Amino acid sequence: ELKVEQNPLFLSMQEGKNYTIYCNYSTTSDRLYWYRQDPGKSLESLFVLLSNGAVKQEGRLMASLDTKARLSTLHITAAVHDLSATYFCAVDGYGNKLVFGAGTILRVKS
Amino acid sequence: EPEVTQTPSHQVTQMGQEVILRCVPISNHLYFYWYRQILGQKVEFLVSFYNNEISEKSEIFDDQFSVERPDGSNFTLKIRSTKLEDSAMYFCASTDRTVMNTEAFFGQGTRLTVV
Questions:
Q1: B61 touching A (Cβ < 8 Å)
Q2: Which runs of E-coded beta strand occur in A31-96?
Q3: Is the pLDDT of residue B36 over 70?
Q4: For B37-83, how does the pLDDT look when each residue is reduced to its tens digit (9 = 90+)?
Q5: Residue B112 forms contact with A (CB below 8 Å)
Q6: Mutating which of A98, A99, A104 best tests the B interface, going by the most B Cβ atoms within 10 A?
Q7: Which among A40, A95, A101 has the least Cβ separation from residue B42?
Q8: B48 close to A97: Cβ distance less than 8 angstroms
């Protein structure tokens, strides 16, 4: 059974600082997704990572995928308050479904 | 930009009542899903649907749940006899898995409150 673990589960950071969220998964998969969720809202797609070594960047966020290590990272550069949200990674499991991590609650303090 | 739409946005129902949550997936997508998120918890897969039948379902998706695509555009989730623990945000999603990018697009969710 595919398991997806994120850490940390809660991250409080100062504006301007850098940090990384980690997503580990237990079985082979070549497809991993990062989503952002604001309180009470839906899931906004951030990144789609489809192969080993994939790296994508959008603004202050950069995501990477290492399928051999079964690890994805979401790196935050020079955090700003607007990045405060919950971030989920999700892995494309066999059987045509996404398996989500527990989510990382990010709070950026000014 | 095409999007997945869900109705209603919020539904309050009494325990034991039937509810139907509605979704209109993106028009050229072929795979449809329901996920749920209990408040403060992670998103959990319920069921996937392709070619007018269920392709996979989770342990959560028991006999109280059913899905249907009654016409060419709607995709519904029915809960026959709601329980308090069914209170959650329910998300519909759709994908086009015929292309490399199998990104799932999520609707805005229906918040179900069972009282």
A1: no
A2: 32-37, 43-49, 55-58, 61-66, 71-76, 85-93
A3: yes
A4: 998 888 999 999 998 999 999 999 999 999 999 887 899 999 999 99
A5: no
A6: A98
A7: A101
A8: yes
